[in-house]
Amino acid sequence: MIDTIDALQQHQLVILRRLRKSPLTEFELALEIAAHSGYTPDQCEENMVAWLTELRDEGLIWSGALTNEHGQSMLAAALTNRGKELVC
Questions:
Q1: Is the pTM of this model over 0.70?
Q2: CB of 11 within 8 A of CB of 39?
Q3: Contact, 18 vs 8, CB < 8 A?
Q4: Mean pLDDT value across the chain
């Protein structure tokens, strides 16, 4: 279980810190992770679902799919109260 900032991996820390100001989409988060970690944009895209699912399962974020009328979807994420307590 993730209880401290020290327990977070670099990509997790970037995600949580970027969500402090507002909810973000998977595309915005991928750009931030690529800019502030050793991951490439392609690696971020490939791993985003797993990363968000892991943080959601830890109770640190809310994440879900947003779908438009054409059936296109993307993920979005926001901090939970527990996530805010950890990074704010």
A1: yes
A2: yes
A3: no
A4: 95
